[in-house]
Amino acid sequence: METGEEFGPWLARQLKLSGKTQAELAEELQLTRAAVSAWITGRSTPRPTVMSDIAKALGTDLGTVHTRTTDTQAGLPTFWYHRPGYPDGGRDLGNAAAFAFDADVQVLARETCQNSLDERLAANGRPVKVRYTLHELTGESLEAFREAILWNDLFPHYSAVSESAGSQKVGRVVDAGVRDMYEKGRLVLLRVDDYNASGLIGDDYADGKFAAVVRRQLESLKSSHGAGGSYGLGKATLWATSALGLVLINSTLSVPHEGRTERRVIGRLELPWREVEGVPYAGPAWLGRPDPDTPGARVARSWWADEETVANLHLTREIEEPGTSFLIVGAHDVASLDERSSDVDDEVPADEGDEDTRDIRRMHRRLVQALGRDFWAAMTGGGSRLPLLEVSVRSLRNGEVVLEEEQVDPFDKQPSRTRALRAYYEGTTVDRLTEAGHVAARSVPLKLPLSGGARGTFGVHQAVLLVTDGGDKDGDKNQVHSLRGNRMTVKESGVPNLPLGTNPFQAVLLVGEAAGEAAPFATEAEEFLRAAEPPEHDRWGQTEELTLRWSPSAYRRINMLTTEVNSAVKDLVARPKRGAGEGGEALRKALTVKTKPKAKVPTGPVIPVLDKLDATIGDEGEWLITAEVSIPRGDEVTPMVPIVQLDVRSGGRPKLNWAELVAVDGCEVADGVLRFRPGARRAKFRGSTDVTSHPVRTTLTRLVVELRAGKGE
User: Fold this and answer.
1) pTM for this structure?
2) Is CB count within 10 Å lower at the N or C end of the chain?
3) What confidence score (pLDDT) does residue 589 get?
4) Distance between CA atoms of 70 and 305, rounded to whole angstroms?
5) What's the start-to-end Cα distance of the chain, in Å?
6) Gap between the Cα atoms of 350 and 368, Å rounded
């Protein structure tokens, strides 16, 4: 038989919930108080024959006492706890964090899906599954749901807010939400479920994910340093999307709390300051069970609900995997009003379609659109790389299907970019775009600054740029999608000053951990760029954190990266120049063009020259080297061997061994020899030294790199 919490802590909580003392329980069991105290402190456990008496005293069944995976039903019922008004008379007329975002289901999709990605259980290698369910309730279904959330207890608070709605924004939104429910007889629920995620683990009040989401503002406790979120603001989109300011939560935990993991339930309401029957209330309220550890048990805490309760609250989780379900009550999508009337679904009545911010068909379509645009990369796999995310959207009305569940397919939503990323994962990229469908790859440097305002470069991170030809389904042409570790699109930008006649293309920039585990300074790049993102996580630029941790000019390193990216894109998509014999025959006869005599091309072998060199020290003490080579014009280019040595004041320079030597552009590496592509005027290679060949510590040395003909002797 499955057992949950230890008997002592479980029994102590049940006594608090039922309002019994140890002495009263001992009296009912006709035992000494010392015997009950010994059970609670763990010094002993009751005999099997006593278990049934304990169950009777607590008003529960014997199985509950044996398994201890849930609380007894002897305690006080669930209720709404409203935070009292501040003693000093202060008033909060809404949650300021919610104003960081619009009431927009596309913003909601971006923030909630990002949070689910950040909480993915990565150890098992499987993706996190996220499902969005739009559910419109009417008639008896609506009445049953209102009864489940104790609507009659909430109504006086909503009425008080409506009375003062004209004087502040949040009140007007809430008043409109309540009026819509009563006048149109409907309520839209939007549920966000994730599976294979950590769940809201931790205590109700102490530091942990549960308290960070349910109890606090501006606190971000992410599981990974490569997480997307960093401000603790993203959760506010849940309440911002609710016209009633109400969100219900059901979490299955990856780490047991109080000996159990399933159906940890709580609700949170966000209203402005209000006065109900002469009593002031500060703003938020929680739906839960009275906490026996608080004075008078007046504060609500989460509780372990039964299956019937979560079903009545529309919070039933359909898979047993850990994760969390958020139910947004009274969902609306104000941003959908910006859509043109021609974009409204044909089945929406013409007289309502343009003004109805609660139409589930439109919200369904906008959710799918946003998820495909922002998370196509996280849903893409290839080679040994598995997708990080699976996501779907469905729409119901009173439990009946309105729109079938739609699995978001990245290849359908972003075909060119998905093809590019898959080619990179499968190792099928090329140096140049010569045929349709090819994907060209190029390394671009991000020079990371020293922290604390110090001048200089901490290290050079090599981001990966992918470019391929674009199509009509990709959206705006000639765009670069930039992303880092969690593979959410952070930045979408065009490439300026493209040559006339450039073929349409799409590009992807992989930075930080998205560039691969072997990319140098990937972790540092993640930290730097994460600090350069605003709360919306939709661009990289100057932020207060970037200024405080690095310097006021640190953002210029990002500008330099953008310049490098745009330059590399232009080089990759440039059309080859026409030969002198190309063009119309009639035009050639009609024009007389003076041409300069061609420069004489050397007939013998030419020697490439090392032109640029960039070197940093890696985490293991190795030299990380990126070099560019200038290649003279000639019929034959001599293969060269890169030699790396330590500079000394006298005597021969100690030679170091290469641990890795790879071609980047314009050349290839075979047995340590660089062989250059015919017609190339420049080439680039990258390498790292073998630390075991270093005679002294790297930080005490200076480096010399040479190119030698032949075998490098």
Assistant:
1) 0.72
2) N
3) 47
4) 8
5) 75
6) 23
- Mean of the per-residue pLDDT values of the chain: 84
What share of the chain has pLDDT > 90, as a percent? Answer: 39
Question: b/e string for 522-532 if b means 16 or more Cβ within 10 A?
Answer: bbbbbbbbbbb
Q: Are 32 and 50 in contact (CB under 8 A)?
A: no
**Rounded Cα–Cα distance for residues 424 and 443 (Å):** 12
SS3 269: strand
12-35 pLDDT tens trace: 878 877 778 889 888 888 899 998
Residues 6+ apart with CB under 8 A from 433: 440, 467, 468, 469, 505, 572, 573
What are 66-80's pLDDT values in tens digits? Answer: 877 777 764 568 899
Give the alpha-carbon dihedral of 689, 692, 693, 696, to 10 degrees.
100
- Distance (Å, rounded) from C-alpha 201 to C-alpha 109? 22
Contact present, 545 and 531 (Cβ < 8 Å) = yes
**Angle, helix 7-18 to helix 48-58, in steps of 10 degrees:** 30
Rounded mean pLDDT, 186-200: 96
pLDDT score of 668 more than 70: yes
Mapped onto helix, strand or coil, the DSSP state of residue 126 is coil
pLDDT band at 342 (very low <50, low <70, confident <90, very high): very low
Name every residue whose Cβ is closer than 8 Å to that of residue 489 and which is 6 or more positions away in sequence.
Answer: 373, 374, 375, 376, 377, 481, 482, 483
Burial of 109 (0-12, 13-18, 19+ CB in 10 A): buried
CA distance 180 to 518: 55
Would you list the DSSP string of 555-617? HHHHHHHHHHHHHHHHHHHPPPPPPTT-S-HHHHHH-----PPPPPPPSSEE--EEEEEEEEE
User: pLDDT, tens digit, for every residue of 424-473?
Assistant: 999 999 998 888 889 999 999 999 999 888 888 999 999 999 999 988 78
Q: Considering only 143-147, 302-306, 404-408, 507-511, which range has the smallest mean pLDDT? A: 302-306
Strands 279-290 and 79-84 come out as antiparallel
Q: Which of 355, 144, 148, 157 is nearest to 244 (CA)?
A: 157
Task: Report DSSP state, residue 625.
Answer: E
Label residue 234 exposed, middle or buried (CB < 10 Å: 0-12, 13-18, 19+).
buried
> 3-state class of 43 per DSSP?
coil
Single-letter residue type at 106: Q
| Residue recorded with tokens 């009003």 | 337
Q: Is the pLDDT of residue 224 over 60?
A: no
Write the DSSP symbol of residue 453: G
pLDDT per residue over 564-612, tens digit each? 999 999 999 886 655 544 444 444 444 444 445 555 555 678 888 888 8
Question: Helix or strand or coil: residue 701?
Answer: coil
SS (H, E, C) 504-544: CEEEEEECHHHHCCCCCCHHHHHHHHHHCCCCCCCCCCCCH
Give the angle subtended at the CA of 290 by the CAs of 284 and 292, to the nearest 5°. 125
- Grouping H, G, I as helix, E, B as strand and the rest as coil, residue 319 is coil
Average pLDDT over residues 627-643: 88
CA-CA-CA-CA torsion sign (336, 342, 347, 348): positive
Q: How far apart are CA 483 and CA 543, in angstroms?
A: 18
Cα–Cα distance, 244 to 189 (Å, whole number): 11
